[in-house]
Design brief:
This protein is of the alpha+beta class. It is 49% helix and 15% strand. The protein has one domain (10-119).
Length: 120
Protein backbone atom coordinates (compact mmCIF):
# COMPACT_ATOMS: atom_id res chain seq x y z
CA UNK A 1 0.00 0.00 0.00
CA UNK A 2 1.34 3.42 -1.00
CA UNK A 3 1.91 5.78 1.97
CA UNK A 4 -0.30 8.86 2.11
CA UNK A 5 1.27 12.12 0.97
CA UNK A 6 0.56 15.33 2.82
CA UNK A 7 0.69 18.87 1.48
CA UNK A 8 2.21 19.79 4.85
CA UNK A 9 4.94 17.28 5.59
CA UNK A 10 6.73 19.11 8.42
CA UNK A 11 5.46 21.56 11.03
CA UNK A 12 7.61 23.44 13.54
CA UNK A 13 6.14 25.38 16.44
CA UNK A 14 8.94 27.48 17.92
CA UNK A 15 8.55 29.27 21.22
CA UNK A 16 12.18 28.72 22.20
CA UNK A 17 11.22 28.05 25.81
CA UNK A 18 11.14 24.51 27.15
CA UNK A 19 8.96 25.43 30.18
CA UNK A 20 5.77 24.88 28.21
CA UNK A 21 6.31 21.35 26.93
CA UNK A 22 3.00 20.03 28.25
CA UNK A 23 1.19 22.78 26.33
CA UNK A 24 2.93 22.21 23.03
CA UNK A 25 3.14 18.42 23.10
CA UNK A 26 -0.65 18.24 23.28
CA UNK A 27 -1.04 21.00 20.71
CA UNK A 28 1.21 19.12 18.26
CA UNK A 29 -0.94 16.01 18.63
CA UNK A 30 -3.91 18.14 17.62
CA UNK A 31 -2.00 19.68 14.71
CA UNK A 32 -1.26 16.18 13.42
CA UNK A 33 -5.01 15.47 13.34
CA UNK A 34 -5.63 18.81 11.60
CA UNK A 35 -3.06 18.05 8.88
CA UNK A 36 -4.66 14.66 8.28
CA UNK A 37 -8.15 16.20 8.14
CA UNK A 38 -7.31 19.36 6.16
CA UNK A 39 -4.74 17.82 3.82
CA UNK A 40 -6.51 18.89 0.62
CA UNK A 41 -7.35 22.40 1.86
CA UNK A 42 -5.75 25.31 -0.03
CA UNK A 43 -5.42 27.34 3.17
CA UNK A 44 -4.14 24.60 5.49
CA UNK A 45 -1.16 26.64 6.74
CA UNK A 46 -3.36 29.62 7.61
CA UNK A 47 -5.80 27.33 9.42
CA UNK A 48 -3.04 25.71 11.46
CA UNK A 49 -1.60 29.11 12.39
CA UNK A 50 -5.08 30.23 13.48
CA UNK A 51 -5.47 27.04 15.50
CA UNK A 52 -2.15 27.60 17.30
CA UNK A 53 -2.92 31.25 18.00
CA UNK A 54 -6.46 30.65 19.22
CA UNK A 55 -5.90 27.48 21.21
CA UNK A 56 -2.81 28.51 23.20
CA UNK A 57 -4.96 29.64 26.13
CA UNK A 58 -7.01 26.45 26.21
CA UNK A 59 -3.93 24.23 26.08
CA UNK A 60 -2.16 26.32 28.70
CA UNK A 61 -5.10 26.30 31.12
CA UNK A 62 -5.84 22.60 30.65
CA UNK A 63 -2.29 21.23 30.45
CA UNK A 64 -0.08 23.49 32.54
CA UNK A 65 -1.93 25.98 34.72
CA UNK A 66 -3.48 23.16 36.77
CA UNK A 67 -0.01 22.52 38.25
CA UNK A 68 0.33 26.04 39.66
CA UNK A 69 -0.96 26.87 43.14
CA UNK A 70 -0.61 30.67 43.15
CA UNK A 71 -1.45 32.19 39.82
CA UNK A 72 -3.21 35.54 39.41
CA UNK A 73 -5.29 36.79 36.50
CA UNK A 74 -2.42 39.15 35.59
CA UNK A 75 0.01 36.21 35.55
CA UNK A 76 -2.32 34.41 33.18
CA UNK A 77 -2.63 37.44 30.87
CA UNK A 78 1.15 37.91 30.75
CA UNK A 79 1.75 34.23 30.08
CA UNK A 80 -0.81 34.15 27.30
CA UNK A 81 0.75 37.22 25.70
CA UNK A 82 4.12 35.46 25.86
CA UNK A 83 2.71 32.24 24.38
CA UNK A 84 1.23 34.20 21.49
CA UNK A 85 4.76 34.99 20.29
CA UNK A 86 5.10 31.44 19.00
CA UNK A 87 6.32 31.02 15.42
CA UNK A 88 4.72 28.38 13.16
CA UNK A 89 6.64 27.12 10.11
CA UNK A 90 5.97 24.54 7.42
CA UNK A 91 7.91 22.27 5.06
CA UNK A 92 11.18 23.80 3.76
CA UNK A 93 11.19 26.70 6.23
CA UNK A 94 10.48 24.29 9.10
CA UNK A 95 13.15 21.84 7.97
CA UNK A 96 15.76 24.60 7.62
CA UNK A 97 14.86 25.91 11.06
CA UNK A 98 15.24 22.43 12.57
CA UNK A 99 18.68 22.00 11.03
CA UNK A 100 20.04 25.43 11.97
CA UNK A 101 18.64 26.19 15.43
CA UNK A 102 19.13 24.74 18.88
CA UNK A 103 16.50 25.91 21.32
CA UNK A 104 17.07 23.71 24.34
CA UNK A 105 13.78 21.88 23.89
CA UNK A 106 11.76 25.03 23.30
CA UNK A 107 10.63 24.16 19.79
CA UNK A 108 8.49 21.29 18.59
CA UNK A 109 8.34 19.55 15.26
CA UNK A 110 5.96 17.16 13.60
CA UNK A 111 6.89 15.04 10.59
CA UNK A 112 3.82 13.69 8.84
CA UNK A 113 5.56 10.83 6.99
CA UNK A 114 6.01 8.98 10.31
CA UNK A 115 3.77 11.01 12.64
CA UNK A 116 6.75 11.77 14.89
CA UNK A 117 6.48 14.63 17.38
CA UNK A 118 9.67 15.75 19.11
CA UNK A 119 11.17 18.75 20.79
CA UNK A 120 14.53 20.27 19.98
Amino acid sequence: MKPKTYSVRTVVVALCDHDYSSVYWNMMESIKILVEYLNESNDIEWRIRQFVERSAEAFYVSCQLRRKEDFSEDDLKNTLKYLSSVRVMFNEEAEEFMMNHDHDGGSWYLTMDDGNISSF
